[in-house]
Amino acid sequence: MRALVATIEKVLDHDVSILILGESGSGKDHLVEAIHACGARRAAPLVCIDCASIPPDLFESELFGYEKGAFTDAQSRKLGKLELAQGGTLYFDEVAALTPPLQAKLLRALEERSFTRLGGNQTIALDACVISSSARELSELRRDLIYLINVVTLNVPPLRERADDIPRLATSFLAKRKEGFDEESMRMLTTYPWPGNVRELRNAIDRAVLMEESDVITAASLPPLDGDVIDTAARARWTLDELESRYIRRVLEETDDNYSRAAEILGINRKTLLEKRKKYSID
User: Fold this and answer.
1) What does the pLDDT look like over 73-119, one tens digit per residue?
2) In the chain, what are the domain boundaries?
């Protein structure tokens, strides 16, 4: 993490494209916020584009904006994300989720550093620092697009590889709501592999604060941290359906019921996820 921070410090005041790679929940979004807040463009907006959740047929209008009358429902002019980010930072979250046609349109805008609203003819200069992130392989992205967004790469290590950070993060998430942690609860926190990374740790601390009646977080207030879900499933004699059902529920919780993002994490399409939701009666 120190090496990561050292690299960030070198690029803060330079308008270079940054690509952040790391597992889901490892803290990529928070890193983007920190880069923007400490950079030369901090006085201007940070605009996020969630590439995994915006439907492909709406992506262009969200990105470029549109003029009144550009299509049937265009009752007035709308500014797109590129225009809203002028002077600031443009963040493409999960950029690897973009379809090939959308990649081509994004490539052109970034390459020419300009764009046009849908239905318009005015060319608008793009003035923003571009940051992208991905929790998956970039094999489906065009190489020329990768070159544009990947001047500097930041690899965020998973939480299991930086256990020394857990006490600091846990204390930070506690946010003075309790006085601290007892020895057993901290031992559990630092020995658990955290497959959900920093996001899972934050959720565990929030739960503990609600469940704990004393001024100090105890092991009893933490969610079950068994270390290995496969061992847990084997000991409890779960069926494959039960294991799949529990995992789908957990992923939906982690993505705040964002079915497009959840389907991507699960490695299935959205239709299959909806069918499994019905099969397992997931609310």
Assistant:
1) 889 999 999 999 999 999 999 999 999 999 999 999 999 999 999 99
2) 2-155, 159-221, 229-279
Among candidates 75, 89, 86, which has minimal Cα distance to 37?
A: 89
Residue-wise pLDDT tens digits, 155-197: 999 998 898 999 999 999 999 999 999 998 998 898 888 888 9
At position 264, the amino acid (one-letter code) is E
Q: What is the DSSP letter of 158?
A: P
What is residue 239's three-state secondary structure?
Answer: coil
Going from the C-alpha of 10 to that of each of 4, 15, 39, 198, the distances in angstroms are 10, 11, 11, 25
Candidates 3.30.70.80, 1.10.8.60, 1.20.1630.10, 1.20.810.10; CATH matching 159-221: 1.10.8.60
pLDDT of residue 246: 77
CB under 8 Å to 231, separation ≥6 — which residues? Answer: none
Q: Which fold has domain 229-279?
A: Arc Repressor Mutant, subunit A (1.10.10)
Contact 245, 213 (CB under 8 A): no
Beta bridge partners of 226: none
Contact between 28 and 20 under an 8 Å Cβ cutoff? The reply is yes
Cα–Cα distance for residue pair 244/259, rounded to 1 Å: 16
**Which of the two residues, 118 and 232, has the higher pLDDT score?**
118
Q: What is the pLDDT of residue 186?
A: 92
Handedness of CA 145, 117, 35, 177 (dihedral sign): negative
Residue 42 has pLDDT above 90, yes or no: yes
Q: Report whether pLDDT(65) > 90.
A: yes
